[in-house]
Amino acid sequence: MSELPAPLASQPLGKSGITVSPIAWGMWRFAGDDVRAARAKVEAAFEAGVTLFDTADIYGPDNGEPFGASELLLGRVLAEAPSLRDRMVLATKGGIVMGTPYESSAAYLTSAIDASLTRMGVERVELWQIHRPDMLTHPQEAARALEDAHKAGKIAAIGVSNHTVSQTAALATYLTIPIASHQPEFSALKLNPLSDGVMDQAMAEDMAVLAWSPLGGGRLAAPADERSKAVAALLDAKAAAYEVSRTAAAYSWIMAHPARPIPIVGTQNPDRIREIPQATKPRWTRADWYAVLQASMGESLP
């Protein structure tokens, strides 16, 4: 039985003209005050072949730190080692406002972009994403702010996170540059992008897909229910065949989809970060891939 195509060594970030690694490193839990330890994590990601680094202005409060803390910590790392910035495709997000909860007005997006650049000590980011859709902002208004930031050289490409297909299409209507990426939650336990149109839109419009929580919020690492255990067992079989970890098999299952989703690996352990290349080793047949899908669905496909 023929195998699905292997992961690419590098791939385009949609139509942005930017090339990125097939796996990203995420900084949701990038926290603390130890710059040396933080730098070690960034350098471990580079050692693992990662070029795409994903953060957000809201990363901080979940770790008991202030709004913007993750970006600030990265800024301290880059101030100490400026050469790291030249090797990095830097992505961040904004639009979540504590207590609001979402805002994408032109004034707010402009201020959020400027604040992120200041915290990280950079002049621009390669990808800036609206983190969550604000239902009270007309997409034309949000598009105007993003276009202005792009023209000013503050952002190289525009992406959306947690947006529906129709929300993405509405925003795209008012942009003169393409939306480069979707960032949905996607894993062997979170299958929505396969059926809600996100993967289809990404392929039709040549958008990158950045998959957040690729381990199902930790449920694949420590399965506790029958569904998770069934999926984990199939991933373990694949992992054993290629002498890699279950997590590597879980990432590889994501990457086997023809939309070429990019898993955002969230581990903050440098040793585990260095294991990221394991995810490019497993190969999937259609039968193997669909077996995982059906185990997650809890039913057979028709």
UniProtKB/TrEMBL annotation:
InterPro entries recorded: AKR_Detox_Biosynth, NAD(P)_OxRdtase_dom_sf, NADP_OxRdtase_dom
Coiled coil start-end: none
Cellular compartments per GO CC: cytosol
PANTHER family, A to Z: NADH-SPECIFIC METHYLGLYOXAL REDUCTASE-RELATED (PTHR43364), OXIDOREDUCTASE YDHF (PTHR43364:SF1)
Protein known as: Putative oxidoreductase
UniProt domain NADP-dependent oxidoreductase: residue ranges: 23-285
